[in-house]
Write a structure and sequence with these properties.
About 30% of the residues lie in helices and about 15% in strands. It has about 400 residues and is an alpha/beta fold. The strands form two sheets. It has a nine-stranded mixed sheet with strand order 3-2-4-7-1-8-11-10-9, sandwiched between helices. The longest helix is centred in the middle third of the chain and has 16 residues, at about 155-170. It starts with 8 loop residues before the first strand and ends with a strand.
């Protein structure tokens, strides 16, 4: 190993076509995204010596959840790899990016590609998504309690948390609605978003119930698509077209029982990841220009806002109310591409793609002026991760 000086950078971003039921295989989507990321970095496939993905296993965890494994992509592109890793469990949605950054920092490779591919929309077909526990013969640990009561969906589990938040702090359904409406207004500026028509509070409150108090527009939208990034050694920046520095990461799982962990009883993993993130940098929440934070369900936006320190425990509902603070032009624009509620679910990687576009000034009509620091939070519940990215300087 040859540890290198400085922090790893993200030098390239690529995405395949993104949409609902694209009738393209995960392999095809991934090749498109990886080649686009390499080209965006100004590199050639022969420059890539690291490769990683999540879940990185041939075992299908849920229909459409897995993309192609490393060996398929390595063979298709003729990559000569010094390092590779398929990650089946780790810090939530950035399970592969964080190990790639570590490998680059340790000198195991100089340019690593990390990719994430889902075809959940095609796998879903015209029916519903299968519950997370429906394929398990038995459940142990926390699943034993959840599955035995019929709680087979992450919507059920999130509903527990937000119901408690509402009870403790007076958080309202209308405040959740402002998250959905604000993200929809951002999605109207994103040509790749699924839903772009305006969403009113009446539309939101009138949508069908999914898991009380969550309704239809509180839930994300399964998509087909692949996202890839190139993580490069810091000494390569003179030859790069652009880059964003990985200032710090949050991947901690401290392991205390939730009832001993945080007095607001939301989700322990978001607080773990956020605390870990801020412990590695001199930057503070006030330095952040844009936040791209996980919204598999709208309450996660509230949980991340509190965990990251943008407001205190129980203050996130008033923080988002009215949408002014979190909109383009507000003090903390969030999910400027429409998030997963309107842009579509790419398992957290849509947030990463938008973060890079904001830092590189390529977000078009949704560009936030003078963006230099972006925080990305993904996951929640049992596992979460976070990234702090800063604009590269030439």
């Amino acid at each position: 190993m040859r540890p290198v000086g400085g922090k790893p950078v993200i030098s390239g971003l690529g995405q395949s076509r993104i949409g609902r039921r694209l009738d393209r295989s995960g392999f095809q989507l991934t090749v498109d995204a990886v080649l686009a990321a390499i080209a965006d970095a100004g590199l050639q496939p022969s420059d890539i010596d690291g490769l990683t993905t999540y879940p990185g296993t041939a075992v299908e965890l849920n229909p459409g959840f897995n993309g192609p494994d490393l060996y398929e992509i390595q063979d298709a592109l003729g990559l000569r790899l010094s390092w590779h890793l398929g990650v089946c469990q780790g810090p939530a949605q950035f399970m592969s990016l964080i190990p790639a950054a570590t490998a680059v920092a340790m000198g195991l490779c100089r340019h690593a590609v990390a990719y994430r591919t889902t075809t959940e929309s095609s796998a879903q077909g015209t029916g519903r998504r299968r519950g997370l526990g429906e394929t398990m013969a038995e459940g142990e640990g926390v699943l034993a309690w959840l599955l035995s009561t019929g709680s087979v969906s992450a919507a059920n589990w999130t509903a527990f948390y937000i119901a408690r938040h509402m009870h403790e702090y007076g958080t309202t359904k209308e405040q959740l609605g402002w998250i959905a409406m604000t993200e929809r207004s951002h999605a109207a500026l994103n040509p790749d978003a699924v839903f772009t028509t305006p969403l009113t509070m009446d539309d939101y409150l009138g949508s069908r119930l999914i898991s009380d108090p969550l309704s239809l527009y509180d839930c994300d939208i399964p998509m087909d698509g692949a996202t890839a990034v190139v993580i490069s050694a810091p000494d390569t920046t003179p030859d790069l077209r652009h880059w964003a520095t990985i200032e710090s990461v949050g991947s901690a799982m401290y392991g205390r029982p939730y009832w001993e962990h945080w007095p607001d009883l939301t989700t322990m993993a978001t607080h773990d990841a956020a605390a870990h993130l801020w412990s590695q940098t001199d930057l503070k929440p006030a330095d952040v220009d844009v936040a791209q934070i996980y919204d598999a369900f709208s309450p996660f936006v509230l949980f991340w806002l509190e965990a990251l320190g943008f407001c205190g425990p129980g203050e996130s509902g008033p923080f988002v109310e009215g949408g002014t603070r979190i909109s383009l032009g507000g003090e903390l624009p969030i999910n400027t591409w429409g998030g997963q509620l309107s842009g579509g679910r790419l398992h957290g990687w849509g947030f990463l793609a938008e973060s890079l576009r904001q830092l590189w000034g390529t977000a078009g009509p949704r560009q936030v002026d003078d963006t230099e620091v972006v925080v990305v939070g993904a996951g929640g519940g049992a596992s979460a991760s976070a990234l702090l990215l800063t604009k590269g300087d030439r």
